[in-house]
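[09:14] KT: can someone run the structure on this one? pasting the chain below
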Amino acid sequence: MVKKVFVMLLLFCTAWTARAQELQCDVVVNSEQVQYTDRQLFSDMQTSIFEFMNNRRWTDQPYQPDERIKCRLLINLTAMPEIGTFQANVQVVSLRPTYGTGYETVLFSFIDKDWTFQFNTAQPLDFSENNYTSNLSSMLAFYAYMIVGMDNDSFGRLGGAPAFDRARNVLNIAASQGAGYVGWKAFDGNRNRYWLIDNLQDPQFLPYREGMYKMHRQGLDIMAQDPEKARTTMLGFLADLQRLQQQKPNAAVLRAFFDAKSDELVNMFKTAAPVQKQQAFTVLSQVDPTNNTKYEILLKR
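[09:31] RB: done, structure tokens below
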């Protein structure tokens, strides 16, 4: 009887843990540019970051195992100025399923070039929401909250607000206690962690955040059933982005949006009616000239 109760408790705890974590995060650490004989260090780093992202709760929301947010951290180590100190550029990517299909859309894609951190296999990664522990744990926590916030915004209007508040708190603590690490302050650059969260919490960017909900719930999620309606919704969102680009040219969050979505936008409109294709091209070529070559396919009959 005691054994049976123990097994039931164990199963309950396991099920609760599975519901608790929000992220299903793949982590890749590329150390090819770093000359160091003990290569096990980089495997340990990858494992530690993987466990940090996947084995803790980032919100109070219940998540079922199949609801966990798929995401990736591609950490490209570029230098080791001294033993235990690393410089890197990192691509953060998150995915979102679309309703009624097996398709996963890239929701967030951002390259952060300002990673400098210490890592020691003997010292486990730790994080406290109200205290600074290390630059690495702060950067990882910041992007965990960003990923959750972006995902929640796509499923509910402004649903990501609590996660973005937590990301802002991480940023404020790291900026004040982080021993001068870059990426946390406005003057560190124009496309860094500061500007990402600043854009998302700026009232002027409210059309962007509301548009992310419209694009996904009223666009991509109905694309298979009603492509005409989905494209009409998307054109409205693109018009909002065009106005934002005029008000806030080269904003970090807009650049991140087109890095994530340019290919998908082409696919959404390349089979549209000629009028919609022309409308999409006109807006996209203005707001995202970097990818203009991609958008030119929309002009073809």
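[09:33] KT: thanks! The beta strands are 23-30, 69-82, 85-97, 104-118.
[09:34] RB: yep, looked fine to me
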